[in-house]
Amino acid sequence: DGGITQSPKYLFRKEGQNVTLSCEQNLNHDAMYWYRQDPGQGLRLIYYSQIVNDFQKGDIAEGYSVSREKKESFPLTVTSAQKNPTAFYLCASSRRESTDTQYFGPGTRLTVL
Amino acid sequence: GQNIDQPTEMTATEGAIVQINCTYQTSGFNGLFWYQQHAGEAPTFLSYNVLDGLEEKGRFSSFLSRSKGYSYLLLKELQMKDSASYLCALSNYGQNFVFGPGTRLSVLP
């Protein structure tokens, strides 16, 4: 089946540790995105990538890093520099046409203790 | 920049019709999308508008007026499972999306 997978569903980390969230898609989509969602809030864009080996900062990129070495994969690292990392993280992908919808993975809920 | 506004919460009765509004201020965008998100889950696509007018998809319809900076999502024959958050989003020419804050809809029996 085609789709987007994110793992794990729930993740706990101690303060000061870096953590990497995985996102894989087999939809053959060129574009991939990372969003953060806080309770009762909308989605805020962290990073996006329209093609392999290229990515752009979104609205809240500070304290995060990404890589796009393969078309199918777009991992997000939450670094210790991110001041308030506890949140729900959503990965999405789409074709490059701007009228195409984004398809979302199931999300990873990160809790930093 | 792009500012998108939606009502924070709405309540409606099972079987009724509800309209969720989305207003925006932007210099330009390609299309306007509506998503449904149940608590703790990923958003799922409902509808989108590129041109002005009404797009109908079963119980859901979406309307766009670019001149008025306004869109709405219309849900008919409400069901309990429609209780969720509804997000409107603008797609930019650079292919990234900007999401509104979302409207939490509660459907009561």
Number of helical runs of chain A?
0
**Kindly state the mean pLDDT of chain A as a whole number?**
91
**What is the assembly state of the chains in this entry?**
heterodimer
Low-confidence stretches of chain A: none
Mean pLDDT of chain B: 92
Tell me what portion of residues of chain B adopts beta-strand conformation: over 45%
The biggest beta sheet of chain A is recorded as: 7 strands, mixed
Radius of gyration of chain B: 13 Å
Helix-strand pattern of chain B, N to C? EEEEEEEEEEE
Report the radius of gyration of chain A as a whole number of Å: 13 Å
What structural class results from the helix and strand content of chain B? mainly beta
Shape of chain B: globular
The biggest beta sheet of chain B, please? Answer: 6 strands, mixed
Largest interface: A-B, 28 and 26 residues
* Succession of helices and strands of chain A: EEEEEEEEEEE
Q: Distance N terminus to C terminus of chain A? A: 36 Å
Secondary structure: number of strands of chain B: 11
Query: Number of DSSP strands of chain A?
Result: 11
What's the short story on this structure?
By secondary structure, chain A is mainly β. Chain A is 0% helix and 50% strand. In chain A, strands 2, 4, 5, 6, 9, 10 and 11 form a seven-stranded mixed sheet that branches. In chain A, strands 1-3-8-7 form a four-stranded antiparallel sheet, with no helix packed on it.
